[in-house]
Structure formats: structure tokens, C-alpha cells
Amino acid sequence: MTKSYINKHKPDNPIQAHKISREMGGGGLALHTREQLPRTSANRVFAVLYLFAIFAVLYHHFLALLHSTSIVSLLFLLADAVLAFMWATAQAFRMCPTRRRVFIEHLQHIAKESDYPGLDVFICTADPYKEPPISVVNTALSVMAYDYPAEKLSVYVSDDGGSKLTLFAFMEAARFAAHWLPYCRRNKIEERCPEAYFGSNPSSWFPGADEIKLTYENMKARVETVIRRGTISRDYIKSKQELEAFSRWSDGFTSQNHPPVIQVLLECGTDEDVTGHTMPNLVYLSRGKNINLPHNFKAGALNALLRVSATMTNAPVILTLDSDMYSNDPQTPLRALCYLLDPSMDPKLAYVQFPQIFNGINKNDIYGGEATHVFQIHPAGMDGLTGPIYLGTGGFFWRKVFFGGQLESSELKQGMKAIRSREVLASAHDVAQCNFESRTQWGTKMGFRYGSLVEDMYTSYMLQCEGWKSIFCHPKRPAFLGNSPTNLHDFLNQTRRWSVGLFEVAFCKYSPITYGTRNINLLSGLCFAYYSFWPIWSIPVTIYAFLPQLALLNHVSVFPKVNSFWFFVYVFCFLGAYGQDHLEFISSGGTIPRWWNNQRIWMVRGLSSFSFGTVDYILKCIGISTFGFNVTSKAVEEEQSKRYKKGMLEFGVASPLFLPLTLTAIINLVSFLSGISQVLFRQGSIEGLLLQILLAGFGMVNCWPIYEAMVLRADEGKMPLKITLVSIVLAYPLYLASSVAF
How far, rounded to the nearest angstrom, does the alpha carbon of residue 537 sit from its chain's CA centroid? Predict the structure, then answer.
């Protein structure tokens, strides 16, 4: 790595860090600026006030316990203690939120194009049926068309499903790239994902677009035909080399048991586009697998990419992308370089993280798929500390951070040999073998870290524990656009899987609440603790979804009366938390309907996927079951897509994940009606029951889409009758059990 982009002289003082970062020796032109968000002071003042309210609520619980110790009072104490813990960890995001801005036009003062570091792009896919290859192809083509020197750009595609169908799709993509890349370069278009570009208004197209579109549509048709048939027609194979490549899929070849497959589809300096310009490297990889050896899911795939790319191109900078996360801005690498090449930056800067932004989300984001807090608000909060977590995609890393800050080991480092040479390919195949990591530090001290299903969060956490830092870059034009689940079952299964992985971090020997707060700093450690303990939201959500309502059914008051001081404390805690969440969401560009759906889906996760994930983790710990990695489907059915666009929740399958939701809907409805009748017929005092009635009503309003799915809808996305009937059956014994408790 040359001296021109070794980072030096970053002040450690957080106050100094707010000053404009300037390129040293470049005429004083700023590559980027950083400022605190205006709400910072208000956040700190409110945190102090709210802390007193929390102490007051806990004090009230202890007073109640002195008079009567029951399982009900203990459960309410547990719920409020968890809420207090999660609130305390969440405050770390609000202490130093920052906003950054970069100036790409000033980059020329610090580095010429010829001085840009090489860039290796890693794209991961695992199932050609859940992650359609044409979507992965679009992602690859969008980054191959970056405004970046072609000789410094390489794209590696990891196919962890080991499918020849995916390889075929990328052979087609390599041929189409010869037409697409010069079209993008010649017309300087911003939208360089073919599917997105040709789906835009044709009035914005340039001459020649119709011919390019026809070529694209023909390629897409061939790929989708092959996927539908599950086999590759001999007519689609264009050369003897392609035939030889497919011959590696022998009878004994399976997705979980096969030797490594590496195919160089394009080589810079050898392959040219239709205008005679060289094209970036494009490499297909399916790492070796053996059913008797652990493959460590996505982290293992990324580590195989790290090693294979090191033997081939060994670029100093690495970009990781999910299969559907295509580039939406061709200048994104230059934005990252404004930080990576700035001599004034901290030499321990590990990566620049861009937010995950999703297209195709319906108007009111019924599933909260935008995840505004996780992908935008919280990273901005961590950016004022030691930097955001790695979000699993859209991160530009220095390669050296995966090797302890040193250059790669000698057996991996590649010189200037052609990547199609026999020597290079032999070395690449060797490091992609399934047993290469045996008795090495891969996954512990080197590469992406093993030990959790959420390898992205865990890797960034361990890097920060080692002293590395990161930066959050959030430009106005989204750097990347991807797809979010449009099916509630897929969405809940995804968060259920995350729950297991997060608990693996929370309760490992490097737990953020103990190890992280000591080895990074208190606030950053609390941020990671918030993420890792995220699934315990299930405890207070479940308790408050059932216990006050069941008490109301039994004519028992569990909250303070309206004329009591404690009534106002409880109201302040509820409105304060919701109000602050609402203001953060709206100030980040959200709308009120989106915020409402976001808080609803938080409850849905708490009742369903977080609860199931907690059980999965406990079973895994005691050895009863092991929760594996399931790829979230990116394929969407047409009718399902129509319902999603109309804002209708998609149920459709008789999944146990829906049982807590329907049970909650039934209990809250019956409880609300019971509370109203008690007040009307003077069987209970409105002063003592008001909070419970309001809480049941609040739950009932949030459950309205579930009532629709249970009773009013007739489409295929309705709630299965089996789930509704089972919930009704379960509701009665739950009521009988509560009558004993109260």
C-alpha cells in the first residue's frame, strides 16, 4: 500500500473530531465534513428526566412487592426492568448522533485516478430459487459499471448453493456486459442496474437504448428459462470452455458436498467490450464443501472470497454486497475514498458503511422493512462514537483489517500474474478447499468472525474491540438499493434467525455488556449490547400484551388509579418513549403512517419471532436442536405482490409464528369489550381500570390487520382457519389459568 493513502494524524478528542477534516497539502479543501445533529442536547436533557421516571416506576414496583409478593407483581417488575435496560442501552445512540458530507470533486487533490487503490467486490448468493440469478446478475452489472478504473476493479460472485444455473447466468452476464458497460460510460447514466434502468421512463433513455434493452431481455429470458427447467440446454452453451466448466457438476456433486469451482468469466487486459475498452475482472466461485465439515454459512463464504481474491487480485479495498443490493450511484466508491484516502483520518479506520435502503417498499411500509432505526438512525448515533456496525452489505473495508492490520500472508499474496494462469487458479482452488481453515485462525483472529448467525454485527463488534473504527456515509442519493421481504412469514423467519445469532453474541465470552464496554468504550459497548439483547423485547411485549388484559377479564386493577401520582408517571413513561421514537423517525424522513406500522411490527416481532428465536436459542444451548441458516426468499409471486402494494399483510400459511398474534388479537378484543361493559354496568371503577382499557384498546387497534385476515378477507393471504381455531381454543385455558393467578 502506497504512502498516499496511509491514514495519519486523526485527533482522538471527540470535540476536535467535529471539525472539518481537510486533505493535507491539498490547498485546504475539505474531503468531508462532520457535525452533530441538532437534537443532541435535547436527547441528553430528556434522558435525565426519563431516568428519574424509570427510577420512580421501579420504586413503585418495590413498594408493591413489600405489601404483596405474587407471580403477577414479579412479572410486571420483570417487564419494566427489561424495558429500563433496553432504554438505557438505546440512549447510547442518542448521545452523539452525527451527520457527514463528502466532496468528491476535491478527491483529485489527494489522489489521481491511477493512484486509486484496487477494489474487490464480493457478492454472495446461496440459492437460485430463493435468490433469482437475474437479480444477482443485475447487482454485479451495476458495480462493474462504476465510475472507477476498470483495471482496478474486480467482481467476485460467491455461489454458496453450488449451482451451475447461477454460473450459466453469469456467463450470460459477461457477454451482456460488453454492451452495457460502454453504454453507461458513454452516456454517463446514474442508474446502472439494467433492470432498474429499463424499468424507468423511456424518455430519459439515450440513443441505442432500445437495442441494449432487447439484448438484455433476451439474456433475461434465457436465464429464467434455465431456472424454470432446472437444466441448461446444449443450445445455450456457446463454447467448448463453457461445456468443460459445466462438466464439473458430476453425479456426486451436491450443494453441500463438492470440490471448489472457480471460473474466470472476464479478465481485465484480455477481455474487451464492443468499443475495445478493457472490462473489469469477473470471477465465479463456489467454495468446496464437505457434509462432515462446518462451512460457517455466510461468514465462511466471505472468508473464502477473501482468500481467493488475495491469490488473484489482492485489492487493498473490499466491498461486500448482498445478492439483491444493486448500486444506485456509480460514484459510490469515490465517496468511500474521501474517507479511506484522507491522510487526516484515524489510521485505525476499518471500513466505511453505507445504509441499506430498499426499493419496492409499499407506500406505508406495512412490515417496517425499511428498518429506519437499524439502518439509518442508529448508525448515525454510533458514528459519533467509534463508528457504526457492519450491516452485512454496503461496507468498504481495508483488506488489512481482516489480517490483524498486516498485509496478507505470503501463501495468499498474489503478484501481477494473469488470473487465468494455471499457477493462480491452482492457488485459488487450494485456498477454497473445504478443509483449508483447519487448524488456522480463520474465523477467530482472521477474516469474518465465526460463532454467530449474525456474522456482520459480530465481525464489526470484534473489530472495534481490537481498536478499529468505522464511518457512516449516508448520501442523499442512496448508494445501494435492495429488496425487503414482502411476506410476513419470511419477515418473521428472518428476524427469528437473527434472534438466535444475536443471543449468541450477547451470551458469548465477549459479551458487549461486559467485554465490549471495557474494550471499546461505555457508550459503544452499550450500542452493541442493545443489538445483541434485541430479542429480549419479547419479554415486556408479551407480558403487556396479555397480563393487564387477563386481569381486566378477571375484574382486577393492576395499574394506578387516575387520581394517583403514579398514574401520571406511567403515562409519562409511555408517551415519552413513544414521542421520542416518533420524533426520531419523522426527522429521518419518515411519515406518520410508516411510523405507526413500524411500531406495530415491533410488537409483532416481540410476540412472534423474538419469542420463537429465544426458545430456539435455549434449545440450541441445551443441545436439543440446532437452528440452521435459511436463505430469505427474494422471489415474489405476482398476486402476493399485488396484495403487498395494497397494504395488506400476507399470512397465507399455517405457521406457528402466527399463533401468538391471533391469540393476542382475541384476548385484547375480549378484554376491551369486558372493560367497557364493567364500566357501563358499574361492575368496576373507571379510575382503576382506565389504563387497562386503554392498553387493550391500543392493542386492539394494532391488531386490526389481523382481525381483517381472520374474518374479513377471502384472498390467499388471509389467516388460515386452522390458526384462528387453535387460537380460540388456546384462549379459554389461558383465561382459566389467569383466574387462578388473579
Answer: 18
271 catalytic? Reply is no
Q: Would you list the DSSP string of 695-734?
A: HHHHHHHHTHHHHIIIII--STTSPPHHHHHHHHHHHHHH
Cβ count within 10 A of residue 69: 10
Amino acid 260: pLDDT: 96
Q: What is the pLDDT of residue 281?
A: 97
- Closest C-alpha to 629, from 165, 230, 161: 161
Question: pLDDT tens, 674-719?
Answer: 999 998 887 667 888 999 999 999 999 999 999 999 999 999 999 9
To the nearest 10 degrees (0 to 180), the angle between helices 565-587 and 592-607 is 120
pLDDT band at 602 (very low <50, low <70, confident <90, very high): very high
Q: Is 609 within 8 Å of 492 (Cβ atoms)?
A: yes
Task: Please state, as a whole number, how many other Cβ atoms lie within 10 Å of the Cβ of residue 13.
Answer: 9
The DSSP call for residue 231 is S
The pLDDT confidence band at residue 627, using thresholds 50, 70 and 90, is: low
Q: Do the bridges between strand 395-398 and strand 317-322 make them parallel or antiparallel, or are there none, so unpaired? A: antiparallel
- pLDDT of 722 > 60? The answer is yes
Using DSSP's 3-state secondary structure scheme, residue 155 falls into: strand
Between 727 and 404, the more confident residue is: 727
Residue 107 to residue 29: CA distance in whole angstroms: 9
573-597, pLDDT tens digit by residue?
999 999 999 999 999 999 999 999 9
* Cβ atoms of 44 and 95 closer than 8 Å: yes
CA dihedral 492, 614, 724, 553 (to 10 degrees): -130
Rounded distance, CA 507 to CA 617, Å? 11
Active site residue 160: yes
Handedness of CA 140, 141, 144, 145 (dihedral sign): negative
d(CA 96, CA 375): 17
pLDDT at 24: 39
CA gyration radius for the chain? 27
Per DSSP, 293 falls in state S
Cell output for 48: 435525565
Half-sphere exposure of 371 (CA within 13 A, CB side): 17
* 308 and 182 Cβ atoms separated by less than 8 Å: no
| Catalytic member of 160, 271, 324, 616 | 160
Distance separating alpha carbons of residues 411 and 403, to the nearest angstrom:
13
Catalytic annotation, pick one of 80, 273, 346, 456: 456
**What are the start-end ranges of the H helices in 622-658?**
638-645
